[in-house]
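Holo prediction — iron/sulfur cluster.
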Amino acid sequence: MYEPEKPTVSPKESATLAYKIGRSLYLNITNRCSNTCIFCPKFNQYKLYGHDLLLAAEPSFEEVMAAFAVMEPTGIDEIVFCGFGESLIRLELVVRIARELKRLYRYPVRINTDGQANLVHGRNILPDLACLVDTISVSMNASDAETYMQLCDTPFGDDGFCGVCDFIRLAKQQIPNVIASVVDYPGVDLDACRALALSLGVSFRIR
Ligand code: SF4
């Protein structure tokens, strides 16, 4: 169990940084996103299954670990980097937390991501996650660049969708379990998305 020298988060802050849904414990480390998805609930309110995920400020390593410890992480099946923001924007923090969690707890670690981290950082960041992340779920969201742009308003233009597909391909080389996911939203061709995911050699999930 991680024991910070002194409490670094209030109960309210702690509940925003670490929250449970079912048997998964989620870490919410940023509200920043590289996309502006049309279907994202956060543009109405930062609430998910009753959890308030609006951060007062971006947390430090110590604050996230303290919040994790407050949750008394027993009876969970996995730890997931996922909140109302794109965790891999804070790549160094993700790596540091994942390394510490693996050392202390050995729970499987999953990252839910928009798949644009290589574009954001200007390099292939997936080797940084090798041996630290067990599953990566990538929001593919469309089967073509035009639909992706309409749904996700990526700042990278046509490169955004290509970047997601490349990210999925490269993830397979470093992460044991890779999932391409889509939202069942009007205009999304689910069959074409499934076919694309399978052609990329990864699992497919409708969320
Ligand atoms: S990447 Fe996720 S959190 Fe960010 S806008 Fe899209 S759905 Fe919302």
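READOUT: The mean pLDDT is 93.
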